[in-house]
Amino acid sequence: MKLKKRIFVTSGDSGIGKSIVKKLTDEGYKVVFTYRSKKSYALEIANDINQKGGCCLCFYCDVRHHESLNNLCSSLIKSHGAPYGIINNSGMKNDKLLINTEFKDWQEIIDTNLNGPFYAIRSLLPSMINVGDGCVITISSVSALRGNVG
């Protein structure tokens, strides 16, 4: 299988992110994905893909922390070149009523769902522009269209 371009996926260790990683590698893309807390799952996914002839790397990264994400992206660009695409998949929710939501919980949601994609795009887009090609996909929740009670 001739491998296609490299795609960077945030939170590829479970759920939708895991499915995205598997589909992309099945289609021949080289994938780099991040995980925040499920190292064993992430390594298992990457190893399984690589054993089947795909090309997949996984790295710990908390998208809420700009420095961590920027350092990872800089290292990846230096060692592998600019990615063709970014898929911002990291997300979280808080099922509490707004009146019961603590400031720290609110900040964690904003840092993950809003700032995280900005940090990833800001870290990788300049290299993609230099190459002159690529795409950015940011995944959102149905809550972006219709809020929950509270």
TrEMBL record:
Q: What is this protein called?
A: 3-oxoacyl-[acyl-carrier protein] reductase
Q: Say which family it is in.
A: Belongs to the short-chain dehydrogenases/reductases (SDR) family.
Q: Name the domain of life this protein comes from.
A: Bacteria
PANTHER family of this UniProt entry?
3-OXOACYL-(ACYL-CARRIER-PROTEIN) REDUCTASE (PTHR42879), 3-OXOACYL-[ACYL-CARRIER-PROTEIN] REDUCTASE FABG (PTHR42879:SF2)
